[in-house]
Amino acid sequence: MKINYLATASMLVLASACAAVDSKGQSVDSGMEAVAATQTVSEKAAKSLPTLAMFDPAYNGCYDREMMPYTAVVDTHNHFRPFGGAPVPFEELMGYFRDNGVLFVNAYGIGQSLPVDSSCEYYLDCVGTPALPSMKNDFANAQNLLDYDPEGVVVTLSMTFPDLANPEEVPEQIAFLDREYPDMFGWMGEVNLVKHALMGNDHEPATRDDIDNWAPFMATLRERDIPIAIHSDLGNDVEPEKYLELMEYVLESYPDNKIVWMHLGLSKELTTLSASRHIEILEGMMADNANLWLDISWRVVYDNYFVEADTRATYVDFFNRYGERILPGTDFVAAHVKNGDIYAEELDVTSDILKDVDDEAFRNIALGGSYFSILNMDYTAPSICKADI
Ligand SMILES: [Zn+2]
């Protein structure tokens, strides 16, 4: 099962992280215990990046928010494959993560692949061309992870192929992945329940009947304890809550599945919802559904909801209360035209609000506490250093 794979990969990565720490002369002796016992974050140079050793459950140092980055060490929402055209090469992408202190990453394909015979690279540039889920990207990600050592980055592979409006084939497709890449996939998503922006590219929103027909694959996810991350627009500026009932129906139908709702339900089509009404909706859903998690990725969310001081404060307060079930991410799409500077900027923007959350929420969101918990990973977010009194 996935845990075996992840545990093995994690141990290898942890071992290499120790070697890296040693080679920089930051530990006094060799061995992980010595690192854990003697290295506190405040002893490290200013602006130094976190290392995997800090996430060992035995680590007894602390994370100094003054000295260390406010950007998340976890990117739970990263599309390693673009809509069309070439991706950023896998090894180059790993460099982007290492350069920014991102240690844990979910590797998504993309839920809207353009046809291989199309020269189009972004679906909104070719409205009318179908952009549909496909298994191609999941194969490519799995193969890359086998072919290249992610070196210091713990990668969790995600199944991005399911078409939620046509779910009948999904169990067979999971079985196919099981045959070709057994035990390698620990996540499902980003899958599109309803995505308004995709309507011009043959995207078909799922209906209640379709959602009922998810039952077989949702049972498989429960057995394997695999979360499903769903993009489902809350609505648009004309009808802000138009699609809310679909997401509610999913939660009602599958209360025992771990479900992640992407972007807090927001999108480029919904930029005028009041923060207070939005939080009222989220709060009600979080209170009613213990297995619901929220993804706060995408710069569109920052640009429209986290920039202004008063609305930002409302979200910070909400994050402080629900940090244990909130997941950060960039929503970076690794198209070949992107580069490391663009990734760094997207990480910076999507993490900006984390400057303001309290220490407990920072541990859970930025330092991976909520991520380790949803995946039952054998890592622990370090505690936050207390200011000297
Ligand atoms: Zn995405």
TrEMBL record:
Keyword Signal: yes
Name of the protein described by the UniProt record: Amidohydrolase family protein
Lineage: superkingdom: Bacteria
Signal peptide: 1-19
Lineage per the UniProt record: Bacteria, Pseudomonadati, Pseudomonadota, Alphaproteobacteria, Parvularculales
Gene Ontology molecular function, alphabetical: hydrolase activity
Pfam family, one: Amidohydro_2
Organism: Aquisalinus luteolus
SUPFAM superfamilies: Metallo-dependent hydrolases
